[in-house]
Request: fold
Amino acid sequence: MDYIKFSCEIKSCSIEELDKEDQALHKAALESCEKAYAPYSKFYVGAAVRMNNGETIVANNQENMAYPSGMCAERIAVFQAKSAYPKSAIDTICITAKNDTEEPITSCGSCRQVMLEYEKIQTGPIKIIMVQSTGKTWISESVNNLLPFGFDLPKQE
Ligand code: THU
Reply:
């Protein structure tokens, strides 16, 4: 029997160690976080997407009384980004939460799968920056790194 081992590499740093562009992306995510509609979980999340055409798209989580009808901040941001600029690639996504969490916030499996598909259809990787409210920061250089066993694109006929 063989074992297959997957590993995941995350860079850990402080918010001050990010370059100016990424710090600005974090600021945009944090500002958006304040506008989240999260009356049920009271967990306020903000996301900011930087595209390779220079545009930045922000979003926050939107919840609903019919629980599964809500949507995570990063999925709204990424869908908005790709619906507005379908031909542009996603460069970086910053995700942050207002609440105290022990570690930087990480995306749910559905969001990772959505981000992974966009990564697969573009040339370069999507960098994911995850920031905790104290400023502790994790960086993944690609979505692929965050989702072992992610779905592949269907084969083209
Ligand atoms: N949430 C996000 O928006 N992004 C994440 O990365 C994790 C979780 C939202 C979904 C829900 O509205 C609330 O946070 C609690 O899970």
Remarks:
- The chain has a mean pLDDT of 96.
- The longest strand covers residues 90-97.
- Residues 38, 41, 43, 45, 61, 63, 70, 72-74, 95, 105, 107-108 surround tetrahydrodeoxyuridine (CB under 6 Å).
